[in-house]
Protein 1
Amino acid sequence: MSQDSSKARDGFTSSFGVLAATLGSAVGLGNIWMFPYLTGSSGGAGFLLVYLAATLLVGLPVMISEIMLGRHAKADAVTTMIKLAPRRQPWWLVSAFGVLAAFLIMSFYTEVAGWVFAYVFKAIGGGLLSTDPKVTSAAFDSMVGDPVQSLVWQWVVLVVIGGILLMGVSKGIEAVTKKLMPLLFLLLLILSVRSMLLPGSSAGLAFLFKPDFAKINAQVVLSAMGLAFFKLSIGMGTMMTYGSYFRDDQNVPVTTFRVMSADLFVSLLAGIAIFPAVFAFGFEPGAGPKLLFITIPAVFANMPLGNVFMVAFFLLASIAAIGAMLSLLEVPVSVMSERFGWGRPVTTVINLLLLALLGSGCALSASLTANVKLFGMNQFDLFDFVSTKLLMPIGGIALCLFVGWVWGEQRFRTALSNNGALANEKLLGVLFLVVRYVSPVLILAVMLKGLNVFG
Ligand code: PFF
């Protein structure tokens, strides 16, 4: 079953490594376009407040719980739940669904990441630079509509992620994210300063941060909660897997809080890098997903040295996507290599091949398979729906029920106080009540609303 137990299990070796890898998972395409766009179109600072509340009441408690379980069991996500569940109760199914969710998310995430990678190279070649959004739009459409380009870029992404995972947890994931995360902050800072220095940039800042409470409705609350969940990579075994690489003396609640705050900071900086520039050149801020690939190139084309800034921007987005994908693929890789004892190289290759197969349907969703639909959705949208609207919330609720009602308060307190070494009783008391009563109810409400159960 599991590998030679006399061999020490790989894990994160330093506090900075823990922070870089975990933040690497949280930071992703969610920060670079989803957060700024949603904030801008859903009430600015008002939306930010709802998002913060959702993060504190749902995101943070679930993330802490997941990391706690992983660190306690020191095993892959499926083995963790088998080890911790009493009387052979099938709680491991929660992790099995997590593995499935990771696969589905990877299938479409690698495609979007492929476009981002492609744009780094296209930006270097200068081919994307045009102040006319019609031209940048045509360039984007011709890329996603070309089956060869779509597949090749997805494979490039898979090979990069697989290559890093092959090196292992400390020498691969930790070593790489320790280098990439500081670079990400540096690029973001340069781009946000550049954006704010443009004449007319203040309108963009106002769009992003001026509260408009009239815009806050059930739909906005729903998207804020969904974003909080997706952003912190919870409800699908990712944080459980990374938690199993945490050191025993790591302060889990404090580390998690730092990751959450740094993630929020990245999102805010991304908004500051994008919207002041968008407004300064008179572009449409509510372009949604297309903002990244169509509006942004046109914005940069208006700036002196626009080419250099555009390369920096898409490099930054690629870095963000890499950390997130490493954590996604590590879920199945660790389950297969540890539970089945197949070894990391074989498991990584199997997972890459599976993803190349499963992901190709998503990659071709804008070309060859555009008309293949199930429940009215193409494969890209279907995988997105099943993973983020169904599997992630169900996983989150199950996790809260397990921790709050099965694992119990005593173990929760012991695990998160590092056996009493940390003086955090009051915090843990409140946290446990939130995990037991508040988070599962909120996640359920959001899930049902997302499925249109209330009409
Ligand atoms: N948190 C990532 C983002 O914001 O883009 C996405 C993600 C990564 C979701 C890992 C889930 C996950 F397990």
Protein 2
Amino acid sequence: MSKSDDKTAEQDETNQTNQAWGGRFNEPVDAFVARFTASVNFDQRLAQQDIQGSVAHAKMLTQAGVLSADELDLICNGLQEIDSEIASGSFAWSVALEDVHMNIEAALTDRIGIVGKKLHTGRSRNDQVATDIRLWLRDQIDSIQPLFTNLQQGMIELAAAEVATIMPGFTHLQTAQPVTFGHHLLAWNEMLERDFGRLLDCRKRLNQSPLGAAALAGTTYPINRMFTATEMNFDKPTENSLDSVSDRDFAIEFCAFASLLMTHMSRMSEELVLWTSAQFQFINLPDRFCTGSSIMPQKKNPDVPELVRGKTGRVTGHLIALLTLMKSQPLAYNKDNQEDKEPLFDAVDTVVDCLRAFGDMIPAIQTNRDSMYEAARKGFSTATDLADYLVRQGIPFRDSHEIVGKSVAYGVEQNKDLSEMSLKELQQFSGQIGEDVFEVLTLEGSVAARNHIGGTAPDQVRAAADRALELLKARS
Ligand code: ARG
């Protein structure tokens, strides 16, 4: 077929199928415009929810006396068949029918005849699509929750196994004070715990039914919005019809949640990448999470965390896209809103994949305890402990800071950690230093001394891991 034949065929198809709103039009819509304005290639993902919404609507119309019981049966059976056809992949989607809503409605009418045309009574695609996206996103949120719990469970269990594993804690990526690896992992878990809360919060606010708002002002039929809301497990109907068809806050809120989650996972990824490097060697990631290099035989690259870190950009991009999409839109529905779907879908897909990847990878981390310990011994990580020791001997903190600073300078010169100096060497800097100083100069002593809620002492980390697991249990 030549290019112009293609064009003619495309136009023919368009001419035949835009009957849903063709009544007031003098000429068929241009084939390119039909393709440009169509959303079916992506909004077909909403098919199941579209059918769910239609069934609820049809039941309500029957109660309201708009449809007979027989008509309801026809509609429900027809929709069910279409649902299975879509699920099996045999449904023929048509771009000329614009979107998921009109594709399904046309298929229903093909199947059951004129009764199919009654389904759209008292409703518009505007409230229909708003309902569909809310239903879809709610389903997605419900399947994201266990991914969270699985990841957090693995993370907390690893933390519990590593409560006494000593590693350097960093500020400015410079060795600061020793911490335990379990403590570090539980810091990650706190980020995820807040993200989970934000996810639930988003679900709470989205769980209202916009169905019945119709095009923008409501409908003249005696509809029962409470019924359809309950039928679809929404908490209640939305309050205002103009807002109902135009509000996409829930999509923005989801993307805000997703962006922050990805930001958190990018921070974790960054640390995983650093820790697997030859310079750190704190952990190994099993080979199944890594790839090699086609030129450098020695390479084992931490692809999974790198990719999670990289995917943060697209999710944050989707948040910005949605905010910009909604900016300055006048009430009520505008076609702009059709652009809400692809960013939202991709944000959901990305979050699902990244949570899954992390859920598999985190429990599989192999800890190199010796390398962590060695690293903590370097960099004078117990300097603060020596300063605190001197304070306990009655020396003001500022003076003890000065004394320790001099001891560290000496250590740098002699290439010795504080704990490796003899008592005599240490006493050059203060006569107040006694034999008992070595208790605080050891890494074990240093972490054990930070023994309060939120501190890095192994006992505290163990208790914190228990509390974190309790929170997970309370979820189900
Ligand atoms: N495909 C449209 C969307 O995603 C459905 C609503 C269309 N409404 C309209 N009046 N053109 O937003």
